[in-house]
């Protein structure tokens, strides 16, 4: 008898991602180059197999992911490790993080690290915790030379992310949700974006894996928690089942469109700059708004505006220097960046 259907589903998702990693030309093993038909007859010793880490909080999603990685990695010649992050936001968090690290070791993962972080206040508690967590994961990956880190975000998480983006009114990129591959060099991989949260929980139950339910996930003080337990159920009651699947599909379609517009903006940017590199307002005006605003956003970030603090309303104000010019003054942007129109040119720089 084969594994439980939920266990089979999570293992298949992880197996596909590991195959992608092995087929990547940047993996240390060089297996991708061989897969593409390039054979080598050199007898020199091969480089070590790639190391893939799983980020695990101890919740059902990440525990299911850790178990699937521990099962699949040895069968594909991949080294598998794990990391858990202690945010220090709840009493006993350090002890729980140690327990999660022990569970990862019991699954056979090696190396396993437990990292404590200090969560700041910038951007609110959820954003600050996320920033601290990713910084810690990046540091662990660099320290061990890991090729990739697997994250346990599910289709339900994707649907929530799309709704949060919609509420912010931040445009199509915000509606595209989380990418299956992200981070520097494609470091972060999300195998479960096509699987629902219940599949991961069923997989843990079928394997008798202990899980920890973070009380923050049900705390109404957190926006995502309210959306999960109040917002999405209300939408499904009003619109019927299938809302989560539809939102996840919207994310993928939006990402495809956003990627195409980003590529268009990259190609168009050189054509709207003068010999000194300044943006020419007349040429910007001739571009479609979606392309023009992408160029403006990129210019603001290059000038020093933090991407996470640069919202659609900021770019709209700068855009009015192009489309609604009436001699208005400079626009102040995050990061002490100033945008102003001078002699038919748009100047964006540190103020």
Automatic annotation (TrEMBL):
InterPro entries reported for this sequence: Rossmann-like_a/b/a_fold (IPR014729), TilS/TtcA_N (IPR011063), tRNA_Ile_lys_synt (IPR012094), tRNA_Ile_lys_synt_N (IPR012795), tRNA_Ile_lys_synt_subst-bd (IPR015262)
GO molecular function terms attached to this record: ATP binding; tRNA(Ile)-lysidine synthase activity
tRNA(Ile)-lysidine/2-thiocytidine synthase N-terminal domain span: 52-230
One GO location term (cellular component): cytoplasm
Catalyzed reactions: cytidine(34) in tRNA(Ile2) + L-lysine + ATP = lysidine(34) in tRNA(Ile2) + AMP + diphosphate + H(+)
Composition-biased stretches (Basic and acidic residues): 36-45
Compartments, as annotated in UniProt: Cytoplasm
GO process terms (BP): tRNA modification
Primary location class: cytoplasm
Annotated region described as Disordered, given as residue ranges: 25-47
Enzyme Commission (EC) number: 6.3.4.19
Keyword Translocase attached: no
Keywords: ATP-binding, Cytoplasm, Ligase, Nucleotide-binding, tRNA processing
Residues the entry annotates as binding ATP: 57-62
Domain tRNA(Ile)-lysidine synthase substrate-binding as annotated: residue spans: 279-346
Family statement: Belongs to the tRNA(Ile)-lysidine synthase family.
Function: Ligates lysine onto the cytidine present at position 34 of the AUA codon-specific tRNA(Ile) that contains the anticodon CAU, in an ATP-dependent manner. Cytidine is converted to lysidine, thus changing the amino acid specificity of the tRNA from methionine to isoleucine.
HAMAP family with a match to the protein in the record: tRNA_Ile_lys_synt
PANTHER family: TRNA(ILE)-LYSIDINE SYNTHASE-RELATED
Domain commentary: The N-terminal region contains the highly conserved SGGXDS motif, predicted to be a P-loop motif involved in ATP binding.
Protein name: tRNA(Ile)-lysidine synthase
Organism: Streptomyces roseochromogenus subsp. oscitans DS 12.976
Gene: tilS
